[in-house]
Amino acid sequence: YLPLDPDYPPDRLAFMLADAGASWVVTSRELAETLFRLTDEDGPRPLILNDADIAADLSRLKNSGIKAHERLARSCPRDLAYVLYTSGSTGRPKGCLLQHHNVVRLMRATDDWFRFRPGDVWSCFHSYAFDFSVWEIWGALSTGGTAVIVPRAVAQDPEAFVGLVAQSGVTVLNQTPTAFESLMRVILEKDLVLPDLRLVIFGGEALEPSRLRGWFTRFGDNHLQLVNMYGITETTVHVTYDVVRAESVEQVMSGIGVPIPDLSVYVLDPHLQPVPIGVVGEMFVGGAGLCRGYLGRPGLTTERFIADPFSGLEGARLYRTGD
Asked: Does residue 264 lie within any of the structural domains?
């Protein structure tokens, strides 16, 4: 699938549709008009889910799992699962090709840390075009949890969102640090408690632990667990894991923790040699999270995904993060 955010500029959406060679666009009648303006008659065909005829067809489908012999095509671990576009430094969006195994191994590799379970309730807060959504959607569905779709208007209103989290019994909350700060302000000002919430996972931007001082002053370390995760779209959402504790607020700089067990992280110099501790270098990531490459950009793929000189495994690669 190729997620499209209707809030994106029309030129960007048109580029993504053309660049990906999309055949169909699953949409609603309210957004179909925008689609028609973005594409020509040879472009992707719309599948309008709230069209009366299509809704009737869908209602006639049997509400049960598909048996293996009923599948029209077999899905394999290294088949393409989704394409996510990132802007990068050039400004031209580039499509990252993620495979089924990239997402499956992410959930398995982090299970010892999080112990997600069928009783968990996840808030699906982020745009589907942001890779944090991959973690929210498939984290819930692959572990038997419940996915709570957060309406756009609620996501933009911290007080309304806190109410939804409380009412829905959300147990797993994924937030950028900026978004959580707005949420935290409401919780502290109104002296609220979210008894079901057990885990807050930060991602998407750098965390400044000192900004969580008010949270830890109120709740301490025992209320729930806060985790900071560094990640990149090209490496399947998350790369590292770091538990944020009350003592973390005294740190001048935010750490990013340890790599996910099936990933390797290196800080290298321009000659791809490890730098000494305390010396600035560029971060490279290797392991099972690396995507296939960039859609239709073989030169850029070769530039950013290089042979891994450290793993000893045939075909192993490193991703040059630029960080």
From this structure: no
